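[SOLVED] Need 3D model of a two-part complex

Original post:
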Amino acid sequence: MTSENNTAIELTNISETYQLEIKTETQIIRENFKALQDVSFSVHKGEAVAIIGPNGAGKSTLLRILAGLLKPEKGQVRIHGRVSSLLDLGAGFHSELTGRDNLLLNASLYDFSREELNSKLEQILRFADIGKFIDVPVRCYSQGMYVRLAFSLAIHVDPDILLIDDCLAVGDDGFRIKCIDKVLEFKSKNKTIIFVTHDFGTARQVCTRGLYLRQGNILQDGPLDEVVQAYLLPLDVDKSSYKYLGAKIVADDLRERAAAADRQQDEENRRRLDQEIWLKAQEERNILEQTAWHKAQAERIRHEQAEWRLDQEQRNSLELQERIRYEQDIWRKAQESRTNCNKARRSGPVELLDAQGFRVVVASPQNLGVQIFSSDNLLTDDDGIRTLFNKGRFKDVSSSAASWRIIKVSKTFILCFLRWPKPVHVTQIWRWVLMSDGNIDFRVETRSLDEQPVDSLRTECRLLSQPGVMKNSSFCGKEKGFFMGLKNDVLCVSSQDNQITASYAHTEGKICFYFLTVADKELLYPQPIIKHHYSFQVMSEQVRDESSSILPHHNVVAHTLTKMELNLHFSEGQCCLRHTPNVLTTGMGLYTSLYADGIWYDSTQALWRVISAGVDRLVVVGRWPWLPVSQIWDIQLVSDTKIRLDLSMQVLKACPLKVYETALMLDPVYRHWSAGEAVHVFPEDVTLDDFFRICLSSRAADGHHGLLLRGDAMPALAFIPDLLPQQRIMLENAAHLHGAESRLLHCSRVHKQEESFVEAGEYNFFKGFINIGGEI
Amino acid sequence: MKIFSLFFTHREIIWNLVNKNLRAKYAGSFLGMLWAFINPLLLALIISFVFTHILRMSSTNFYLYILSGLLPWTFFAGSLQEAAMSIPAHAAVLKQFPLPREIIPLSVVLANFVIFLIGLLAVLPLFIMIDVQRLMVLPLLGVALITLFIFTLGLSLVLSGLSVQWRDITHMLNTFLTFWLWLTPVFYAVDIVPAEFRVVIDWNPFYPFLMLFRAALLNGVPWDFVEFGISIALSMLALFTGAFIFLNKEHKFLQRI
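Solution:
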């Protein structure tokens, strides 16, 4: 059996439970504490493994099982070879006996036979190096001498497997080096070493492999450096954040109580509370300082790591790629273990806020989401409310992939803490507050824990409602607030600090509606901390119409170009075309749209800035908030009948863009169109709800690549794009899309699946003319 | 029976534990091992003085009468007291080495037994001086020693096994042993006990062993076989109960100490 020959230790599905007695003033509660949960790993002969983890992670229990001291409750232990353990140095030594007597009398415990001890005694004494003290009772020893003697005895057993429990840290430096040398000597003899420690320097000297144990689970198993980093970076910083939050909450409570005391004129109480507040503030400051310290530590480690990585890069770039793959692997594993953790915490109750039937339910352990209810009707779909962000090479990291912790719950308040472990390394704080007016206030604060900032962030609220229900809500615009249709009521979402926009997406054959958040203009990504703030409200249809004005408005970027009768009004990424007295466009008019990852991003959602504006020429630049894309529109009224459009797109970072198109929403009066010689009529019997689409392929070769549209009592309109490769023009009945009946002219370019990834750079987006009343 | 083979394979460890226990007990004292028999001699002297001169109860060889009961009792009570605390006291050893835990109470009882034997050998000449004929029944003393040892070991296993879970036992034990001592005719003759209380003595489990020692040391006659049978039965019962309880409890020791 080759496996038997190579394997020194083999653990399969080990679980161990302790029974704790929690003594309170009135009663004793018995509780099971799971020290180890389903732990499996194996160690080869000659391998040195460091086990790290916080206190109480189950490290010592694991060692005891390996040493054969504990029989695990469940699982199998297979150990091949003689085990010696340095768990509790000097066990069995009696303080009244001399060092020599203790050696003689305890040798049998260490599995020394009498002859073996006699032959090794000289060696042991030389190693311990405590001189004449060997014949003095052990009680007179200093701590260092005691450990020297005990360690010396233990290390001279000749085991196949050596278990060490963080005991190399004692003794002076000289002795420590001796100990490590001895351990390394063991290693060179192809013995197996298991080393539990918090001293990562020593661990690096001895071990190559690391096991990260936490709450009885193995979180990570791999090269020691990786494991140590995984352990050091997130935990310390997070722990401090938790503490900080805790202290902050307590401080907030105290402040409230102080205010109450003040009202009651209770001077003494007030003074005491003031003092408490002061103490808490002090604590808060301390914790902040601590966090800063941890961050500095993390920074230092990261710095070292960066240097190392640079070095490595120069030597071998292939290895770097290996590393990246490995990191992704770790991420996947961390995800899995997180899922396991969440499963384990499944017992917790569902938390909720309640305001006259309008509820937000945070169901963190069960399905990792937040759902909104109105009078017991679920409004949101399975995903509920979630956040999605991009960071570096991690795209669309969702809040349902985070590990959740509900930190505080009261009748009007829920505070959640979300953490994405390394290598994503981001935290979020979600705070839900039920306001006195029945609104629900929602704040998200996102923070990256390393130097790589979060590139973009959006919040999604996926609703169950069907398209038909959203009848009058235009949801392509960009507002400070938004209404979403429900069965009887309207869900109103507004944002104090940000602009939000609603959109729809096809996912898995289902249409979902959701809103996205646009950062304020000054706050373009990336930023170190991103804050979003919303307010949720449910109102009836009537109330909604009356109260539309309650939503805050923002400054609109708009400009009007005029030449004789021709008039073009640009407003926030859409253009309205007018030929006095006729309005030629409806709905969004002239706009552009990008399709990426199953979502349409319209130009109306972008952030716009005017570069130059004249009487007949306008140049604007728009930045898409959740795509690394910006567009420059150069619109010129060449004559009183001709509009020149020159649209270019700048991709700031490689990203997937499947379709991009320029669209013109025309009045439904336009029913006749001609391309070249052929003249067609838009079918009479097309109803509002029917879907009707005609594709016109590029005919640049014929010289006829434009489209001429006519309608009763309207000037003819020619749409003449300079067709770029792969572009084509389409005409469709757009009633099903945007509520308003219209003829929608697209000039779109569809990428094939394999080439949908667009590299960074400048692209021509659209070039062409619109002729009013003229010819092609 | 597994227990005995374990004792055999770990004999070296057991012997070292006993040795360490004895050395540690008398380490730093001037008289050392002598205390093993000075103590019971003095105690017996004081008690016989109190009983004969102050309470005016006299009988022949009263001093030896007390001594013959007091020595086995000291061994018995001392072992139980020490064994009850033995597991927590040896926690460091148990946490470090995967030993069979039975050897801890065993080593404690053995150490006490060695002291008992030394004390007994020291006072044996006093008994022989009364009547040299007594040498004839001395082999029977050996049988008494073995049965008492097994009985004590059994009860020690029970106590050490239970006291890890219920620490109250160690506190209760002292008072209980004192009470038991006075219910046992160590300091007084059986015939002065009123008839209605005789039943207490008849059901006293230590009484048969006491009788074995008295018969061998004091009366110099072979005891009757009923007493002999009872004591063997008792010691076996104690041993099996002790082993059963101990083996049932021992896997949880490490979590509790």
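Edit: Residues 103-130 of chain B form the longest helix (28 residues).
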